[in-house]
Amino acid sequence: MSGETGLPGGWEVRRSNTKNLPYYFHPATKDSRWEPPTGTDPEKLKAYMASHHSSSRIANPPFQTPEGKIRCAHLLVKHRDSRRPASWREARITRSPEEAMEIIKDYEKRIKEKGESLSDLATTESDCSSARKGGDLGLFGKGDMQKEFEDAAFSLEKGDVSGIISTASGLHLIQRLE
Fold first, then answer.
1. Which top-rank group of organisms is this from (predicted)?
2. N or C: which end of the chain has fewer CB within 10 A?
3. Taking a C-beta distance cutoff of 8 angstroms, is the pair 167, 93 a contact?
4. Which residues pair with 75 in a beta bridge?
5. Are 117 and 78 within one domain?
6. Is residue 32 among the annotated active site residues?
7. H-state helical runs in the chain
8. Does one domain contain both 40 and 116?
9. Same-domain check for residues 31 and 100
């Protein structure tokens, strides 16, 4: 196990030149992947990603938002009844919907009462692959997302964070960025 990263021996975290996202690479085998390899210590990897790949290193795109499109970040907590109960953090998610609700309520409290950044929390805690980008989902318009997510996202003002939103994917906190 690689000490600081929590990755199995020989694996390292690199940053993609084209996507400006972290990925996992094994120089000896030339294996590369977006998801952490089997045998990764998720707690060590979370700590490493928070200190070396936090959202503060991700620049906001220098363009105007097209008409009818918005940009949001989200933090997703999946549970065993989610549409795909797996993530970059856990190969098989077994927590109950009630356990997921308790987890996301804690994140909501940390954001709203303690001033923690949704983006920073998403980087280490979100069950969505967008965690690599601080939860940033990029631009989307009406009809691009699940209805519950879309309704909540489009009702937010820039900078606002939603309450807890339940979709087939799991439980979300959403922040409107653009």
1. Eukaryota
2. N
3. no
4. 173
5. yes
6. no
7. 42-52, 97-112, 118-125, 147-155
8. no
9. no
pTM here?
Answer: 0.67
Q: Same structural domain for residues 47 and 82?
A: no
| Set 72, 119, 128, 130: catalytic member | 128
Residues 89 and 41 in one domain: no
Active site residue 64: no
Residues 143 and 110 in one domain: yes
Residue 175, CA distances (Å) to 14, 73, 137 in order: 27, 5, 10
Say whether pLDDT at 57 is over 50.
no
Annotated catalytic, 175? no
Q: Is residue 122 part of a domain?
A: yes
The residue annotated as part of the active site, out of 79, 126, 162, 172, is: 172
Q: Which amino acid is at 104?
A: I
* Cα–Cα distance measured from residue 78 to residue 19, given in angstroms and rounded to the nearest whole number: 25
How many domains, in total, are found in the chain? Answer: 2
Highest average pLDDT, of 16-25, 67-76, 96-105, comes from: 96-105
CATH of the domain at 34: 2.20.70.10
Domain around 39: 12-53
Q: How confident is the model at residue 19 (pLDDT cuts 50, 70, 90)?
A: low
Amino acid symbol at 168: A
What pLDDT digit, counting tens, does each position of 138-157 carry? 999 998 999 999 999 999 99
Which residue among the candidates 53, 74, 130, 175 is catalytic per the annotation? 74
The tens digit of pLDDT for each residue in 87-118 reads: 988 889 999 999 999 999 999 999 999 999 99
